[in-house]
Amino acid sequence: MFARAVRPTVSLARSLSTSSQNNAKVAVLGASGGIGQPLSLLLKNSPLVSHLSLYDIAHTPGVAADLSHIETRAQVTGHMGPDQLDAALQGCDVVVIPAGVPRKPGMTRDDLFNTNATIVATLADACARNCPEAMICVIANPVNSTIPITSEVMKKYGVYNPNRVFGVTTLDIVRANAFVADLKGLDPARVNVPVIGGHAGKTIIPLISQCTPKVEFPADQLAALTGRIQEAGTEVVKAKAGAGSATLSMAYAGARFTFSVLDAMNGKEGVVECGYVRSEETECKYFSTPLLLGKNGIEKNLGLGKLTAFEEKLVADAMDELKSSIKKGEDFVANMK
């Protein structure tokens, strides 16, 4: 239902070429990394951004200097090391967090937990102190746990606003759109597949039945397509053969989500993106669904919509893993010294 009711912003090119002006300060935490550099490049290209604040523990001055030579309006500042983290975040409207270590072959997203949990908790702490009202967009995996971590840290400071903390699952939607378009010979810019649940393996639930335009697949092809969308990240990890995980497509997806948040903050109506957020839609505390975005973050959670029996089973099968990942994140913050 909602897939037809509100057309999402599906084209990144449209966001890059938009003529609307905005004075938004956007921080990228992890700006020197495999996702951070191309993400920062895409953000620098956008007239929606007036100040691009780049932070990482190494190499940020070089990335900032390089990007600052691009002939677009965003002012670029580079901040390196923990001493400069607070300065990077002061006055930010949106914070995007691709920081953390990538997967290598044979690793699950959960294998990243110990390293990335600490990184995300540290960065969320700095956000809570320096820009408590910013939109926080977390890319760092495992997203199913890093969003509960971010939320619990913000709660400790009394500044948690569930409408402003997002797990960026957009790459799952981007992949679903690309794969469906390829199979059906469609223009991918015209395809929109809602993807709900979480952002790892079987918690990734593409709702092919709600795709616009309407598409149909035989049961075996639908199962294979669903499996490919769920394991697409591993497909890239294997193809890169130890040289990292999905960085370029993730940067594209992260930029798309950030532009949608900025468009909505600017008053654009009808902006819909899926995101992993605090939710009352299922028995899980956090769950990704299509969200109507507004000036203050989530304006309305559009829910799961009408599911097929196949999709209902996918949701049921995801619940235990999602709950376990959420608890793992909450416990991590509870046990922090």
Provide an overview of this structure.
This protein has 337 residues and is an alpha/beta fold. The chain has 2 domains: 24-168, NAD(P)-binding Rossmann-like Domain (Rossmann fold, 3-Layer(aba) Sandwich), CATH 3.40.50.720; 170-325, Alpha-Beta Complex (L-2-Hydroxyisocaproate Dehydrogenase, Chain A, domain 2), CATH 3.90.110.10. It is built from 12 helices and 11 strands. The chain has helices spanning 2-5, 12-17, 36-44, 60-68, 85-89, 113-130, 143-156, 170-184, 219-230, 232-240, 248-265, 309-334; strands spanning 24-29, 49-56, 75-80, 94-97, 135-138, 165-167, 195-197, 204-206, 272-278, 286-294, 297-301. The strands form 3 sheets. The chain has a 6-stranded parallel sheet with strand order 3-2-1-4-5-6, sandwiched between helices. A 3-stranded antiparallel sheet has the order 9-10-11. It is globular and about 55 Å long. It starts with a helix and ends with a helix.
For the terminal residues, how far apart are their CA atoms? 46 Å
Shape: globular
What is the structural class?
A: alpha/beta
CATH-wise, what's the superfamily of the largest domain? Lactate dehydrogenase/glycoside hydrolase, family 4, C-terminal
| CATH-assigned fold name of the largest domain | L-2-Hydroxyisocaproate Dehydrogenase, Chain A, domain 2
Count of helix runs? 12
The tally of beta strands, per DSSP, is 11
Number of domains: 2
% residues in beta strands: 15-25%
Task: Examine the secondary-structure arrangement and name the CATH architecture of the largest domain.
Answer: Alpha-Beta Complex
Poorly predicted segments: 1-11, 13-20
What is the level 1 CATH name of the largest domain?
Alpha Beta
Could you give the order of the helices and strands? Answer: HHEHEHEHEHEHEHEEHHHEEEH
Mean pLDDT: 94
Binned, the helix content reads 40-55%
Integer-rounded radius of gyration: 19 Å
Largest sheet: 6 strands, parallel
